[in-house]
Amino acid sequence: MRKMYGTPYYLAPEVIKECYNEKCDVWSIGVIMYIMLNGKPPFNGENSKEIMNNIRKGNYLMDFESSEEVKILIRQLMCYDYL
What we know:
single chain
């Protein structure tokens, strides 16, 4: 898979780099869980380019109330170096 497809908020870093496999969907599941618990996406921006830059940087806060186990699961789903 060598083309970037998807909604910026849910894109895995590998998709942005245009070199990915089916494991990128695991990232998206982590983003969905994060949004369900926090009410907002982990990476924001004024436009798609800014959102993708923030995804590349990989900095997000887990500043919502939840168990530590759930936060660990989200961190594992949104793993940068899965290979």
